[in-house]
Known about the structure:
Blueprint: H1 8-27, H2 30-46, H3 57-77, H4 83-89, H5 97-111, H6 114-125, H7 130-137, H8 141-160, H9 177-186
Helix pairs in contact: 1-2, 1-3, 2-3, 3-7, 6-7, 6-8, 7-8
Amino acid sequence: MKDETPSFGDALIQAxxxxxxxxxxxxxxxxxxxxxxxxxxxxxxxxxxxxxxDSNLKAWLFTxxxxxxxxxxxxxxxxxxxxxxxxxxxxxxATQLTHLEFExxxxxxxxxxxxxxxxxxxxxxxxxxxxxxxxxCGCAVxxxxxxxxxxxxRLLEEMTGETAATExxxxxxxxxxxxxxxxxxxxx
Length: 188
């Protein structure tokens, strides 16, 4: 029996739940998340000939989604928030404890920098390897590891009030990654 790979369209459909989760983690807004996923799928379908077969479709889609989100974010920063929109974004307090805990976690996650939140979610929630996550974000693997470490430490601080014992990884600029490795290897 021949093991058939799904068609491009089927693979896109299979990726929708992951795309929705990632979009929501970036934006924190379910309506915007749906719009981002829809735009991502449209862009992917329109440019499907640029997808390299047998490469990581999920990483390719996440890159498209991420770029779409940041384009939208930059555009929205130039627009003023009107009173009607602010009223629609007002939240109602939850009544169930687990829901409150989830909201606290979500708020703490949204207080992380976009880079740290994105790194943490790609690695922990989506199961990407550090290499694939670094490719999606356009940074070095060491930078990705550092971002995840810092995000975990910050979440621990936010959720428990405790600070992490030590931070062993320091974030280096992507351009200086090779220089940092060379310096570390030269140390006794």
